[in-house]
Structures are given as C-alpha cells and as structure tokens.
Design brief:
The chain is of the alpha/beta class and 347 residues long. The protein has one domain. Helix content is 35%, strand content 16%. The chain is built from 12 helices and 10 strands. Strands 1, 2, 3, 4, 5, 6, 7, 8, 9 and 10 form a 10-stranded mixed sheet that branches. The longest helix has 16 residues.
Length: 347
C-alpha cells in the first residue's frame, strides 16, 4: 500500500494475524477533531459506513469530537455514502462574509455553520437517534468558573489558565474545562472515562444539533454555545480542546476492536497537548485499536504537499475557487485510501 498505513495495538495485532478484520469485530469507531484534515477521510467513511458495515446487526459506538462528531452523526443517516459526499461538499464550499484582509466575525460563522447543520440534521434527527445499530456519543468542552460564560476578557484569560494548568497536568486542566459527552441514552459508552473530569448527558432531539454545533465551535473562530437543553448550564466549545484525538481507555472495553480512521498515526489527547510531544506516544489504552491513516509520503503528493487545514483560509485568502479546487482534489485523491483498505480487507 502506498497511500494507507495501518497501525495496531498488541491485542488488535494478534487478532488481525489470526482472523483478519471482519465487520463483526468492530465495537467502536472514534473520529478526531482536526477541521479540514478530516476531509481526506471522506472516501473511507463512505466505504466503511455505506458498504462494509451495512450488513452488520451488532451495536457499534461512534465517538466524535469537532468535525469528527459531524462525521459520526452523518454515518447514522439512512444513506451514509451519499450523506458523507454531501458533507464533504458542504465543508469544502463553506464561505463567510468578511472585511478585506480580516477574518470573518465568530458570530457570523456560528450563524452560517449552525444553519447548515440545521439543514442537514433537524429533519433527520430521528435517523441519528434511533439508528438500529449505531450509538452516537458527541464530545464537547464545557467552561467552568471564569469560563462558564463567553466574554471578551474572561475567555482569553480562561484559556490562558487552561493552557498553564495543562502544561503541568492534563487532569489539572479540568479546573477550567470539563468533558461533557452527549451520549445515546440506549447504551452507555463501553469504556472507562476516569482519565479526565467528565459528565454524560442524554442525547435527544432537543440537543442534537446544538451539541454538534458546540462541538465544532473552535474558540475565537466561532461563538460558544450556551445552556444546551438537558445539559448543565454554561458555555460549550469544541470537544477537541479536551479530546483532540479521543485518546481514551479503549482497552477497558470488555470485547471487540476499535477501528479508527485518522489523518495521522498518533493520537494526541487534547488540543492544548499539541506542543507536548511526550503526550503523543501510544499507550496501553490503545491495546485493541486499529488506526488507518495516510502515509506521509503520499500526503506530499496532495495540493500544497499537505492535508487540507485551516491555514488554507489565509493561504488562499479571497481566492475561494482556488481553495475549493485544492480541497476537492485532496478528497478525490483520498479515494486511494478507500481502495487500499478494501483491498487489504479482501487479502
């Protein structure tokens, strides 16, 4: 394989060597934060949800942070292959009004993005919430104390405090931000969540769209979502802040494997951990995890020699057509990831 790399924890590797990988082996699928980087996973998502898992009849837990929550909710729709293609097109073609040379205002971005989510999920909420096999778990970050409401001063001061405490200890950051999971009420997440301050809230039709919007609300790029129905009062931001790549205790699951389509091979715990390379290492919590990720050499063949990312909004500026073309090319080229995974399964 030239485009796709596959990494596996010890338990998962032993299973692969003896049995290969079957749809019935998979009990959980996480989806990371990462903004436009997640676009390259769209062909894999279309294959996994639209074809490979379509014939299964067992429960699969879908965990998502930021764009990952949008992806996993999309996987619960009646025609996931078509829905993932539409989601990629929505993301690629996003455009916001802004003054020349300045970024768009967060309130405007929240309004436009929220309207798009409502368009895709308001009428389809029951498809997501009542899916016969999939159980959706949406990870968000809720501000505490100084950060309980968004404000011009309190928000930057709060994130400065969160960064400082996280540098000492990831758990200590829980004094500023807690993990709130909007979780399918039919089945709890089958893994331990003792690594970080956590609350679990039942996911329902009242809070589905707001939970996904909050989960994509990058601080200073979008407004926080306040007081989501059914959840503790407060300001909710992107779930990637507390759980950037959902490096959770998957090994605590009683059985089955975790299939993780990802845009890189390492799983960084929180967004503020990006600077701390020692926190990027694999741990025993990933014992039963299989990571599918792009080969770095293949990534260099994509437009600009990299995955799509938020820097492209600045790189291309007002040349929206050029950005759309670059991102669309990256998605088309990413069909190689799907083809190589399908071939590997057959082999």
């Amino acid at each position: 394989m030239r485009a796709l790399a596959i990494h596996a924890g010890p338990r998962a590797l032993a299973h692969l060597r003896e049995h290969g990988l079957r749809p019935s082996d998979v009990r959980a699928i996480p989806a990371a934060a990462g903004g436009p980087k997640g676009l390259v996973l769209s062909p894999l998502d279309r294959f996994i949800f639209g074809e490979w898992l379509a014939s299964t009849d067992h429960t699969v837990h879908l965990l998502g942070a930021s764009i990952g929550a949008w992806r996993m909710a999309t996987g619960c729709l009646d025609d996931p292959a078509a829905a993932f293609a539409l989601m990629a097109d929505d993301y690629i073609r996003q455009e916001y009004e802004h003054a020349p040379g300045k970024p768009p205002k967060p309130t405007h971005v929240s309004e436009v993005f929220g309207a798009k989510l409502a368009e895709r999920f308001d009428a389809s909420a029951q498809q997501v919430l009542a899916h016969p096999r999939f159980r959706l778990h949406v990870f968000t970050s809720r501000g505490r104390h100084l950060m309980r409401r968004q404000g011009r001063l309190r928000t930057p001061l709060g994130y400065l405090g969160a960064f400082a405490t996280n540098a000492l200890s990831r758990k200590a950051m829980g004094g500023w931000l807690e993990r709130v999971i909007f979780s399918d009420a039919r089945d709890p997440l089958p893994l331990h969540l003792q690594d970080y301050r956590t609350q679990v809230v039942p996911l329902d039709a009242r809070n589905l769209q707001q939970a996904i919007l909050a989960n994509c609300s990058i601080p200073f790029w979008l407004d926080a979502v306040h007081d989501i129905p059914g959840a503790p009062r407060g300001a909710y931001w992107d779930g990637g802040i507390t759980d950037y790549h959902l490096h959770l205790d998957y090994a605590s699951m009683s059985g089955g494997l975790v299939l993780y389509p990802h845009f890189q091979k390492s799983l960084i715990p929180g967004w503020l951990d990006k600077a701390f390379r020692h926190r990027h290492r694999a741990t025993e919590r990933l014992d039963n995890v299989i990571v599918l990720s792009p080969e770095p050499e293949w990534v260099k063949t994509l437009p600009d020699g990299k995955l799509p990312d938020r820097s492209d909004f600045k790189r291309y500026g007002d040349d929206v057509a050029a950005r759309i073309a670059a991102w669309s090319t990256a998605v088309r080229e990413s069909e190689r990831l799907r083809d190589e995974f399908a071939g590997w399964l057959d082999g």
